[in-house]
Specification:
EryCIII-like_N; alpha/beta; Rossmann fold; 7-stranded parallel β-sheet; UDP-glycosyltransferase activity; 6-stranded parallel β-sheet
Amino acid sequence: MRVLFTTFGARNHVHAQVALAWALRAAGHDVRLASHPDLADVIARTGLTAVPVGRELNEDQVMEELREREETSREEYDAATPDAQLLLAMDELRPEKLTYDHMHGVFTAMTSAVFQNYSSAEMIGDLVDFARGWQPDLVVWDPLTFAGAVAAEVTGAAHARLMFGLDLVGRMRESYLAEVAQRPPALREDPMEEWLGPVMERYGGTFSEDLVVGQWTIDPVPTSLRLPADLPYVPVRCIAYNGRGSIPPWLREAPKRPRVCLTLGVSHREVMGGDQASIGELIDAVAGLDVEVVATLNARQLQEVDSLPGNVRAIDFVPMDELLPSCSAIVSHGGSGTVHAALLQGVPQILVPGTMWDNGIRADLVARSGAGLRLDAESLTADALRSALDRLLNEPSFAEAAGRLRRETLATPAPRDIVPVLESLTAEHRRRTATGPDAPRDDLVRNHA
């Protein structure tokens, strides 16, 4: 079958799709990965075939605009209602806070400021045009890239979301629709339908909830850490991929003392929250400890550090799946790729999250599991980090809990194992009315005899 993956132009979102895309390709399926033109080279370097769609997104510029919007939202809301949550955030889980007014505001703000930016009219048009010509059987789309769902619905392809982290959209959507159902019919507004409904009308279709949450969802989050949502999920083991790399000579030898990975993500100069905790302070915190610290910092981030302590090795990039097996602990910003890689290797974690998407909730979930500790960026001190590291390295309970999550992760089907499931679901959901070259192909039902 033909499988079209799609995501907006963010490198880590492309990386989240690579393992499954290659599993399908290795099983004999034809695979393409569509994204904004600025990611074409990134996709090509994974060995997959890139399909540029829409205009260049310029991820750095988009993230800067979102940070500015979020700061403006914070100032306006804090001035009016100090306890109000930011509208550009979907990570609210407290039932008493999930009112209709709050969730309607979140979906309104996110639709206009984020979703329509990531799936612009140009991107949707290009993706639909490509799908009409290529006729995919299955579209696998990033949960923030609704253009994939539109292209699938227009062409009759089956489609599924592939999560990169926690399902914040699905979780809030469930609560929001329950609140909407309690309102008089004339007052049942839905920002997502107001956006995607007219989009579908231009292609002769109509809005359905599948455009928001997919026909099913492929989820790499371990079941014990998944947010509750009454949606069909296909669990898959998260296989770490963070770009091409090679093993440095020093990594071939076992560390002589406990090795700690310190990674903050290349898009952040400071630990999630801007000026709340500097890289220099974190480096100072591990200076003098009887550990070997491997800090994945780029040249820009190292500008904040006057000099590196003798126990700290700074390296711009090293494959996490090669580094983490030798580590006794990891300190990170709580990004999904980093945390999933640590879960797979059973490494205890110290998480210092900020407001970026689901990092805070993920940090809480890992801490509740017993496999790590959460430190708040606002109150982070060198003493607090040293104390947390001492606990992670010397209290066996953290390694034991991390080991349990590793066993749960390894027990989850690998990408190659769910290929027959995806084939079956595609055969069930795919709808075609065309004849000739666009008609259903025999290869779609392969392996289902």
